[in-house]
Amino acid sequence: MSSRETSGSKVDDFFVTNVTLFSQNLIKGLSASFSVYNSLTRNNRDPAGTGITQKFVEPDGRNVRFKGDICFLIVKKNEIRSD
Q: Does any domain span residue 38?
């Protein structure tokens, strides 16, 4: 993000790096992903708005998330009738 100024409070510019690893069909019907948000964990700050008494607001630090999906597929065989 670029540097920003609000109500006389100025913050420096910064960038945020997110990393995601994703795998489809790890095992038949199983998918998984692993993500790290704000992976470099710099001390970033955003300028506070007019309704907040603080000059700066510090966002969350590093976040780690894991997601797993299991897909079940039920297939019924069609019955064939011969009359």
A: yes
The CB-side HSE value for 45 (13 A sphere, CA atoms) comes to 13
Kindly state whether residue 40 falls inside one of the protein's structural domains. Answer: yes
**Residue 50 placed within a domain:** yes
33-77 pLDDT per residue, tens:
999 988 887 667 777 777 777 777 777 788 899 999 998 877 777
The predicted model scores a pTM of 0.58
Beta strands (DSSP E) in the chain are 4-6, 9-11, 19-27, 30-37, 46-47, 56-57, 63-70
The residue type found at 4 is R
Number of domains into which the chain is organized: 1
